[in-house]
Amino acid sequence: MTHSASRSRTSHSPARNGAPANGVDHARIEAAVREILLAVGENPEREGLQETPARVARMYAELFSGLHNEPRQLLSKTFTQKYDEMVLVRDIEFASMCEHHLLPFMGKAHIAYLPAGRIVGLSKLPRVVEALAHRPQVQERMTEELADLLMEELNPRGVGVILEATHTCMAIRGVRKPGGICTTSAMRGVFRENQATRNELMALIYGPR
Fold first, then answer.
1. Residue 32 falls within a domain, yes or no?
2. Looking at the structure, do residues 94 and 145 belong to the same domain, yes or no?
3. Which of 95, 104, 113, 131 sits at a 20 to 30 Å CA gap from 138?
4. Among this protein's residues, is 26 annotated catalytic?
5. In the predicted model, is pLDDT for residue 15 greater than 90?
């Protein structure tokens, strides 16, 4: 199969307004990847690379799908519930793309909130993590985006978010220190104001210390 045939098979038809139907310009990504291969001294017509541009385009469409999803919509439906203790979903695995080098960082998110008369379906919290992770990101901003989004949409008494991740941009290039873990946190409301509430959250996530 020639490279041109591969591109023809995987091209996405544009929408009526001229933009790609799914918000991602596959053909443009494929052309860019081909240029990168040429720039580093490779032959994009080589058998093992002929379909690489199309594969990378599909991969980027998946990894950056969060750019075309509105995470607020995931939190639009809540339920009245007389429950005023902490709700914690921990160890939510995620993978995102560092916007500085377009290399992945992967880890776990721990999300807690203190309801003020309304709760949200538990599956919505991992879905919000996915929506924010599937876009060019930095861990620090993603942590704060999660906390602020929950505060704005759920109107709870407080929110606590902790992210732990390993960054391939630090592990496979530059300083080359694999195994390092970056931990970021964002505390809002009672979690920020009350040390005892923060301590309870830490104990539930990490155990007593």
1. yes
2. yes
3. 113
4. no
5. no
Q: Exactly one of 35, 62, 68, 100 is catalytic; which is it?
A: 100
3 belongs to the catalytic site: no
81 catalytically annotated: no
Q: Per the residue annotation, which of 30, 98, 134, 153 is the catalytic one? A: 98
Both tokens of 104, joined, read 């992945």
pLDDT score of 209: 58
Strand partners, 106: 95, 166
- Is residue 137 very low, low, confident or very high in pLDDT (cuts 50, 70, 90)? very high
| 3, 26, 30, 139: the active-site residue | 139
Q: Is the pLDDT of residue 22 over 90?
A: no
CA triplet 107, 32, 36: central angle to 5 degrees? Answer: 80
Structural domains in the chain (count) = 2
- Do residues 171 and 104 share a domain? yes
Catalytic residue among 99, 140, 152, 193: 99
Nearest CA to 125 out of 168, 99, 159 is that of 159
Catalytic-residue membership of 110: no
**Residue 140 falls in the annotated catalytic set:** no
Residue 5, in any domain of the structure? no
Six token digits for residue 123: 């599956």
Residue 3 lies in a domain: no
Determine whether 98 is an active site residue: yes
Catalytic residue among 12, 42, 51, 101: 101
51: CATH: 1.10.286.10
What is the rounded distance in angstroms from the CA atom of residue 125 to the CA atom of residue 127? 5
